[in-house]
Amino acid sequence: MDAERVRARLLEAVGPKGLVNDPAQLRAMSTPWRDSWPSEPLAVVMPGATAEVSAVARICHEEGWPLVPQGGNTGVTGAGLSRPGGRDVLISLKRMNRLRSMDAGDDIMVAEAGCILADLQAAAAAQERFFPMSLGSQGSCTIGGNIATNAGGINALRYGTMRQLVSGLEVVLPDGRVWDGLRKLRKDNTGYDLKHLFIGSEGTLGIITAAALFLSPRPRARCTALVGLESPAMALRWLRRLRHAMGEHLTACELIERICIEVAMRHQPGLRDPLAQPCPWYALVEAGSCDEAAALDERITACFAAALEAGEVLDGVIATSLAQSDALWAMREMLAEGHRHEGISFKHDVSVPVSQVPVFIDQAGEALAARFPGIRQFAFGHIGDGNIHYNSLQAAGEPAADWAPRLPEVNRIVHDIVHRLGGSISAEHGIGQLRRQELPRYKPAVELEMQQRIKAALDPLGQMNPGKLFL
Amino acid sequence: MDAERVRARLLEAVGPKGLVNDPAQLRAMSTPWRDSWPSEPLAVVMPGATAEVSAVARICHEEGWPLVPQGGNTGVTGAGLSRPGGRDVLISLKRMNRLRSMDAGDDIMVAEAGCILADLQAAAAAQERFFPMSLGSQGSCTIGGNIATNAGGINALRYGTMRQLVSGLEVVLPDGRVWDGLRKLRKDNTGYDLKHLFIGSEGTLGIITAAALFLSPRPRARCTALVGLESPAMALRWLRRLRHAMGEHLTACELIERICIEVAMRHQPGLRDPLAQPCPWYALVEAGSCDEAAALDERITACFAAALEAGEVLDGVIATSLAQSDALWAMREMLAEGHRHEGISFKHDVSVPVSQVPVFIDQAGEALAARFPGIRQFAFGHIGDGNIHYNSLQAAGEPAADWAPRLPEVNRIVHDIVHRLGGSISAEHGIGQLRRQELPRYKPAVELEMQQRIKAALDPLGQMNPGKLFL
Signal sequence: where (chains A, B) (predicted)? Predict the structure, then answer.
């Protein structure tokens, strides 16, 4: 392939502003923020409009050039990176960042794929609405990437994953045709719901260029609490007690293992131990209501008092100010960052039925300790969704390099247990390059076959994001 | 095709209990409750287990016999009926009616496709949980049919359509293989989400045999109110006021035109006019909360007082007892039945963006009156979802037979307006046989093509429910 010719044809499609030449920018778009995926694009385009995306796709379709869509490059599975060897055209949606419409009366906004998540949250808030998707990278991830990976985040317990927040999509198909599915409808039963195919498809079926997104009423009362617990089983009891008492007001329930807080404190000097005494586990919960007078703090306090009385929690703090709430959540957001400082970390983003979370944590901990003495468990995550970020660190004091080769075996041990418990080896991060080798071990063959047939039906040339999701 | 041979082979698969011979039963399964679709099956089977469904599908696959799945036969588009001419094997799921598991701890139950919706509501309630799907036919419709048609109903405003309530599916594929996708997971990002393809596919891709279903906390407080209004635009203002004040507690908002209540009273002698003076339009709203002390009635009363003061409602009644609530909803459930007594009715189950409901009702009313003087508008439905059951009756006193030939033109007028407003010609009932001729006029060609490609990918022989959904 003549790289000069590729760039010349693409320049035709996107104009000088849309062809990326700056080495620093190229490097940023080929370098993931976590882990390391060798990546080298054939060319990088950054179109400014759907018509330009369409033109790029059409050219790639005619020429047989693979096309890799990228949003904010905040993914952790390598799904949005070009493969090594300079074979792929990388298409960044970041210049497509217009809020096309804010229909507060319909509780819907239409945003282009490159809009930054935090900007959309702010745009909704400015209209007294709430866009509930919220995750650590919200300052740099794009809504297109959130949709392509069906992002989860901390509010999924109450509001669902990204999938539940999409009313319609605009998608450029592999051959360059545009599907205008930007519907602002809450009900539409006119055949297969194609948007759900593109949501979570990791760029393997087409390029999402815009989305119609549902807005919710803005919560006007909020309460955050952190409790200390003996075990994940106690966290589950606490969750059930809260869910019973708080019902629709419970928006988040996060499980945190003690070591996560210790590591965070070690590397973030300003961070204080949240409770007077260290506890083996913690649960961080939040409730919200559109009713200012909902008295959420009284209700959580009552739950907490009852749980303390029953010996179901060890200690706790209920935030009495917005600043206290924010501090608790800031600590939560530091956890993912924390273990980067601890040497090697084997990461797993798994889900099991909610009732099986304690079983999973017990079994995985035992199996790993038996096989790799000294291995440290570093678990946190969305227990309300059954979604645990189950990470493992090398034994204290041992060199990370010695442990690196153990990754496949650690993955196997953890994922086999997840699978036996009816769980998923990727709850919210997706498959990308990271898990595509493992997926066939856990997915029923008939399901893999259906996925391949759909891929072949909608992307017959295999042009969209090759080397991701599928083997 | 030798019908004897067909029946002999099917008998092998399902045993004597699974082959339907009783003429009354055969008639019931070939006769829709509304409208009339000529229907005559080649044979009717009623398997008792997934393995039997699988065997039936395999035989049909080998023999090239079309297969038509049926649930409670409560659909209104002819999607669950065999075609005339005795060509189709009708497969009823009604004997598959086991609740396989009730996992209250996970807030999930696993039900076979033939379970009656009302039975599942009751099973959830017995565990202090809530299964929110609720519609007029709940005493006879099956959960499999609800899923295959992505049912909507009155609680969709708060809980979403059927799609939002499904955690996993078990599906028998056209070739008889079983896809076990019965996951009890709230997050699973491991490739295309196939369950969303089968949900709403109207039996054209496979046979849903069981589903894992999400349960919600059971509401412990409830308040129902009916207000009288001047116009749909006022209903929208009332909805927005409520949504602002009640937020997540608002579960339903139904619009009702005066004529609907008049017709219902004419044919239901026990029914009383709900307000002292007749009003042109009504809105029936419900709020629910898991918090017993939520004081929903006080909050709705305050909204009502403010709206009355602002001249935004004409009159109203707030139910002060469960019996009063139930009576208001019973009236609502009579509406669909009401217009059957009034001669001919041209029915439309449409949706538009919520803000466009008044525009749609105005425009459709004007256009129809201009073309067919005297035509009566009979509109009610889920205004909170933008979903209106927009029906038209022949001019008062005129013979229905004279009006029958006008159906295609009435459909065209109504659906063209819906389409111009960005709406859907089938909000919750589906396409089936009823709308398949019209769909290509309104669906983008590229979307129809994708749907056909998916159909061909998953049902390459075109064996599943031919003559439905597609042209």
Answer: none
Q: Two tokens at A93?
A: 């949606």
Question: For B3-92, which CATH class?
Answer: alpha beta
Instruction: Summarize the confidence of residues A212-235 as an average pLDDT.
Output: 96
Tens digit of each residue's pLDDT (9 = 90 or more) over B123-136? 999 999 999 999 99
Residue of B nearest to A460 (CA): B453
Number of residue pairs across A and B with CB atoms under 8 Å? Answer: 275
DSSP state string for B93-136: -TT---EEEEEGGGTEEEEETT-BHHHHHHHHHHTTEE-----T
Tokens of A130: 């709430």
Is it the case that residue A1 has pLDDT exceeding 70? no
CA A407 to chain centre: 22
Residues of chain A contacting residue B246, judged by C-beta atoms under 8 Å apart? 290-291
CA atoms within 13 A on the CB side of B76: 15
Stronger pLDDT, A357 or A340, i.e. the higher one: A357
Residue A135's SS3 state is coil
Average pLDDT over residues B380-406: 94
List, in order, residues 6 or more apart from A123 with CB less than 8 Å away.
Answer: A99, A102, A109, A131
The matching CATH number, chosen from 3.40.1110.10, 3.20.20.370, 2.40.50.100, 3.30.465.10, for A99-217 is 3.30.465.10
The architecture that CATH gives domain B221-339 is 2-Layer Sandwich (3.30)
Backbone angles phi, psi at B22, to 5 degrees: -60, 120
Do A88 and A468 touch, CB atoms closer than 8 A? no
* Rounded Cα gap, residues B396 and B205, in angstroms: 44
Helix, strand or coil, per DSSP, at residue B408 = helix
Class of domain B343-429: alpha beta
DSSP A361-402: HHHHHHHHHHHSTT-EEEEEEEGGGTEEEEEEEPPTTS-HHH
Residue boundaries of the structural domains of chain B:
3-92, 99-217, 221-339, 343-429
A385 at interface of B, judged by CB pairs closer than 8 A? yes
User: What's the length of chain A?
Assistant: 471
Is B291–A454 a contact, with Cβ atoms under 8 angstroms apart?
A: no
Supply the ipTM of this predicted assembly: 0.97
Q: Which residues contact A314 (CB under 8 A, 6 or more apart)?
A: A227, A228, A229, A230, A277, A279
Chain B neighbours among A 386-425 (CB < 8 Å)?
Answer: 386-387, 422-425
pLDDT at A419: 98
Which tens digit of pLDDT belongs to each residue from B44-72? Answer: 999 999 999 999 999 999 999 999 999 99
Give the containing element (helix H, strand E) for B209.
Answer: strand B207-214
Best residue in B180, B186, B250, B419 for a mutation probing chain A (most A CBs within 10 Å): B186
Q: Do domains A221-339 and A343-430 have the same CATH topology?
A: yes
The secondary structure of A313-327 as a DSSP string is -SEEEE--SHHHHHH
Contacts of B353 in chain A (CB under 8 A): 103, 106, 108, 184-185
Instruction: Report d(CA A448, CA B254) in Å as an integer.
Output: 42
Confidence of residue B212 (pLDDT cuts 50, 70, 90): very high
Comparing CA positions, the residue from B323, B360, B349 lying closest to residue B235 is B360
pLDDT above 90 covers a percentage of chain A that reads: 88
Q: Which of A106, A387, A448 is facing B353, going by the closest CB pair?
A: A106
Judge contact between A315 and A279, C-beta under 8 A: yes
Instruction: State the CATH architecture for A343-430.
Output: 2-Layer Sandwich (3.30)
Angle at which helix B357-371 crosses helix B232-246, to 10 degrees, equals 160
Closest to B354 measured CA to CA, from B295, B416, B422, B307: B422
* Residue B34 clears pLDDT 80, i.e. is over it: no
